[in-house]
Write a structure and sequence with these properties.
This protein has ten helices and two strands. The protein has helices at about 10-15, 15-25, 30-35, 40, 55-65, 70-85, 90-105, 120-140, 140-160, 165-175, and strands spanning about 110-115, 120. It has a two-stranded antiparallel ribbon with strand order 1-2. Helix 5 crosses helix 9 (about 140-160), helix 6 packs antiparallel against helix 9 (about 140-160) and helix 7 runs antiparallel to helix 8 (about 120-140). The model has no long low-confidence stretch (mean pLDDT about 85).
Length: about 180
């Protein structure tokens, strides 16, 4: 039985996503949000149009991913917050684990002494693990992550492919 090889490099290189993501990794957080475009420019309905073909989609996506990159990060963060607010079990579990780890770390290796019991830090970590893992599985984090990937991809790539380039950019490309 032969394996089917899917050339992912061929698919991703057409959209030039590798170079777009390289710029994201090299910038600090303050620099990333310093070039946040105004909402009126980001949601300018007069620039929405159907692309003529895949070549134009590719050109628009390449341009808009660079131009609106900070806005797209903000959209992804808003969708992440929405995902956590609609999956309260997952949000509770994340907060529970964070507070639990913080509280155990505050003990500085000492045992937790209650009036009737004594628990070592390894027992506390085990208890946290025994409670948090089943709750995490029940919260369906994979479903939330897949929804987040899908919603972010559709939102960002949809916007990037239907938002036309500014006229001055289009004329400068034709002159070259």
């Amino acid at each position: 039985m032969t394996r089917i090889q899917i050339p992912l490099e061929a698919l991703t290189s057409r959209l030039n996503l590798g170079s777009q993501l390289e710029g994201v990794r090299s910038q600090s957080l303050s620099t990333r949000f310093a070039n946040l475009r105004p909402i009126s420019e980001f949601l300018n309905l007069s620039r929405l149009s159907k692309p003529a073909g895949f070549g134009e989609v590719q050109s628009r996506v390449n341009y808009n991913l660079g131009y609106f990159s900070s806005n797209y990060v903000a959209v992804a963060v808003m969708l992440l917050i929405y995902s956590l607010l609609t999956n309260l079990t997952l949000l509770f579990d994340i907060i529970f684990v964070g507070v639990g780890l913080f509280a155990i770390k505050k003990l500085d290796g000492r045992d937790l002494e209650l009036g009737f019991a004594r628990a070592t830090t390894s027992q506390l970590y085990t208890g946290l693990f025994v409670i948090a893992v089943p709750l995490f599985i029940w919260a369906n984090p994979i479903g939330s992550a897949l929804w987040l990937v899908g919603a972010t991809g559709v939102s960002i790539l949809g916007h990037a492919s239907f938002m036309d380039k500014p006229i001055d950019t289009a004329f400068s490309e034709e002159a070259v």
